[in-house]
Amino acid sequence: MAQAAARVLIVEDTPTQAEVARALLRDLGHEIRLAETGADALEQGLGWQPDAILMDLELPDFSGFEAMRRLRAAGVEAAIIVVTAHGSVNHAVEAMREGAVDFIVKPFAKTRLTVTLQNALEKRALASELRAVKAQLNRDRFFGFIGASPTMQAVYRTIESVAASKANVFITGESGSGKELAADAVHRASPRRAKPFIALNCGAIPRDLLESEIFGHVKGAFTGATETRPGAARLADGGTLFLDEIGDMPIDMQVKLLRFVQTGTFQPVGASKAEKVDVRIVSATNRDPWAEVEAGRFREDLYYRLYVVPLELPPLRDRGDDVLLIARQFLGTFAREEGKRFRGFTREAEQALAGYSWPGNVRQLQNAIRNIAVLHDGERVERAMLPPMLLRSSRVPTPALSASPDPIAADAPPVMPEPGLAPAVLDSAAPQAAPSPEAPPEDPPRAPEAFLSLAEVEKRHILAALDATGQDVPRAAAMLGVNPSTIYRKLQSWRE
């Protein structure tokens, strides 16, 4: 197997000895440089970054041992082979202690030198590969992510692969799984990292303001436009524009976004001419994007423009021990913020954390740990300190409207409204005694006033979905098949 060409630095203060070494290595095709002093060796080691160094121990300014110490301290990872006329066991041991990979004594034959150098270079290449593999396999941190599970390692590799490209990225995953964190990681790992990262939540902006938020507007373009304002597209020039919850974007706005994606040009609201920017677009949604296309809620041509590199984030319940890694990180952070003594979890608490399904994913876990840090204190978090939802043996299912004509039947699960909301009005009719099993009576006709209004049934159904998802509005909306903005409007109206 042919040895690849390498950079070899010969550190030797005797010119004849340096030329002998150079002549012996010339036929191997390596790039050779000479250094006559320890200082010169340091300068070339740092600036040239050789793959191997043949180091003489007797140098005019300081010893080869000292040169090795300084090179290692400076981060030079070259394979160092000590070459000296003073061969002894003590020298060999000291050379290895200072980081040398081998030791040869002058005078040396060509075969001895070439084989030693080849072995040193092969060891260095193997060590480099092992470090890279170990780093890939054992990473539990990646930009803002915390997690060492195989599913997250695959996410990290995808981000690294796509980062250097200009291709648009489409991130999917459940609400709270870290889609904005993934978009930020794509940006920070890319050549655009020094330019802006602009994030925009398409589901949180009123539809009549969305165009202005993305493309900006000029003064007087509409009522309230008292000054010219750049949009996210202009602000992200040279960097990355992250469009979160893009599935909530109205169809008419999707047409304008498609033109922007195709041409890189846009026209601010009220402007008379177009502008051009260099922007990479990363999109995200907690829905199935192709299902949205089939349902007619998302343009197919825009889908193909944005869905170039898909990146799917796994839910927290599929990430194994990552739950505990993230929980410990959050606990340390919130304990410092709240001035608490927490240093970890008891075994029982960790089992409860690992056994919960986390429908709200990392965001829900973050809120749960913050709740613990605010309300409790101690050396370790005990199981009794966990929020009640983590201790339930089973979660409350969402009731189906068709399951019973009476939405408050005795076997229906209780609905826990969001804090601050008025509780659902309960039917005031007295409960009926259980019928005798010997003579079951016929169901009496239901009085008209026993029926709830459709508005009340809708309210109960929405609140039940929110309770089942840990008050996660986007996830509840997905369960109910409505837009999150619909639920936000309902909640606001119930508060008024």
Helices and strands in order, then pairings?
Elements (H helix, E strand, L loop, with lengths): L6 E5 L3 H12 L4 E5 L2 H11 L3 E5 L7 H10 L5 E6 L4 H9 L2 E6 L4 H29 L2 E2 L2 E2 L3 H14 L5 E4 L6 H10 L8 E5 L5 H9 L16 H4 L4 E5 L6 H13 L1 E2 L8 E2 L3 E6 L3 H6 L5 H7 L2 E4 L9 H17 L5 E2 L1 H9 L5 H15 L4 E2 L6 H4 L62 H15 L4 H8 L3 H12 L1
Parallel strand pairs: 1-2, 1-3, 3-4, 4-5, 8-13, 8-14, 9-10, 10-13, 15-16
Antiparallel strand pairs: 6-7, 11-12
Written overview of the protein:
By secondary structure, the protein is α/β, with parallel strands linked by helices. The chain folds into four domains: 7-135, Response regulator (Rossmann fold), CATH 3.40.50; 145-221 and 228-314, P-loop containing nucleotide triphosphate hydrolases (Rossmann fold, 3-Layer(aba) Sandwich), CATH 3.40.50.300; 317-391, Helicase, Ruva Protein, domain 3 (Orthogonal Bundle), CATH 1.10.8.60; 451-496, Arc Repressor Mutant, subunit A (Orthogonal Bundle), CATH 1.10.10.60. Helices cover 43% and strands 13% of the residues. It is built from 19 helices and 16 strands. The chain has helices at residues 15-26, 38-48, 64-73, 89-97, 110-138, 150-163, 179-188, 207-215, 232-235, 251-263, 289-294, 300-306, 322-338, 347-355, 361-375, 388-391, 454-468, 473-480, 484-495; strands spanning 7-11, 31-35, 52-56, 79-84, 100-105, 141-142, 145-146, 169-172, 197-201, 240-244, 265-266, 275-276, 280-285, 309-312, 344-345, 380-381. Strands 2-1-3-4-5 form a five-stranded parallel beta sheet, with helices on both faces. It has a five-stranded parallel beta sheet with strand order 9-10-13-8-14. A two-stranded antiparallel ribbon has the order 6-7. A hairpin with an 8-residue loop joins strand 11 and strand 12 (275-276). Helix 6 (150-163) packs across helix 7 (179-188), helix 10 (251-263) crosses helix 12 and helix 13 packs parallel to helix 15 (361-375). The longest helix is centred in the first third of the chain and has 29 residues, at 110-138. The protein is elongated. The protein starts with 6 loop residues before the first strand and ends with a helix. Keywords: Activator, ATP-binding, DNA-binding, Nucleotide-binding, Phosphoprotein, Transcription, Transcription regulation, Two-component regulatory system. Residues 397-423 are annotated as: Disordered. It comes from Falsiroseomonas oleicola. Residues 399-413 have a biased composition (Low complexity). This is Sigma-54-dependent Fis family transcriptional regulator.
